[in-house]
Amino acid sequence: MKALSWIFLAALVFLLKPSFSPAQVAVVVRTGPPPLPVYDQPVCPDEGYLWTPGYWAWDPDAAEYYWVPGTWVLAPEPGLLWTPGYWGWVDGGYRWYPGYWAPQVGFYGGIDYGYGYPGEGFYGGKWQGNVYRYNAAVTNVNNTIGTVEPWRDRPRRRWQSHRRHIAKPRRCRCSNNKLREAIANSAFR
Questions:
Q1: C-alpha span between 89 and 104 (Å, rounded)
Q2: Is-contact 132 125, C-beta < 8 A?
Q3: Using CB atoms within 10 A as the burial measure, which of 32, 124, 155, 170 is most buried?
Q4: Segments of 36-123 assigned E as strands
Q5: 155, 154, 172: which is closest to 163 by C-alpha?
Q6: Which residues have CB under 8 Å from 37's CB, separation 6+?
Q7: Residues in CB range of 171: below 8 A, 6 or more apart
Q8: CA–CA separation, 135 vs 116, rounded Å?
C-alpha cells in the first residue's frame, strides 16, 4: 500500500511540475532590413562584460523593422562568447537566425558588425581561464580595466558603414560549414 502511495505522489508531483518547451518560431520577412547604422560603441562598464552588437528586429504588428542597440553584457559563464544573430536569405524571404552563447563564435552571416565582429570570426577579446582580455584595438574599453591588450593580428578599423544586415547567396564571404553548425548546436541559449 505504501509503494502505491509513493507512486501516486510521484505521478502527482510530475503532473503538477511546471514545464515549458523552448520552441523557436522562425521569423521570415519579404523585405530585407535597412543597412546597419554607424554608431559609437559605449565604453565597457566593467571587467568581464562582452559586447553584443545591435541588430534590426522585426515587429509583426507594425510590419516594420526596429533597431535593437548593441550593449555590454556579462557572459552566462566564463569561457562563453557571443555569436550575433543575422538575417539570411532563404526560400524567397529573409529569415532571422538568433544569436547564442558558446565556447567559440560561430557563423553570423558574414555581417560586419564592427567592434571585433568583422564578418567571420571574433577579434574583440579572448578568455584566459576565468579572465576576459579585451582587444583595445577594436573595442571601447578604458585603461582602468586591467585586462586590456592591444592586439596586432587584425586591422584597426572599427566599422564599415554600409554593409547590409542580411546574408544573401553568393554575397556572403563565409559559409555555414559543419564546424560552425556543431558550435551552434552545442550553444548555451
A1: 24
A2: yes
A3: 124
A4: 49-52, 55-59, 64-68, 71-74, 81-83, 86-90, 93-97, 100-102
A5: 172
A6: 54, 67
A7: 110
A8: 8
Cell numbers linked to 11:
505521478
Residues 6+ apart with CB under 8 A from 36: 54, 56, 111, 113, 161, 163, 164, 165
Give residue-wise pLDDT tens across range 112-153: 999 999 999 999 999 999 999 999 888 898 876 766 666 554
Residue 66 has pLDDT above 50, yes or no: yes
Measured between alpha carbons, how far apart are the two ends of the chain, in Å? Answer: 44
User: pLDDT tens-digit profile of 85-106?
Assistant: 999 999 899 999 999 999 999 9
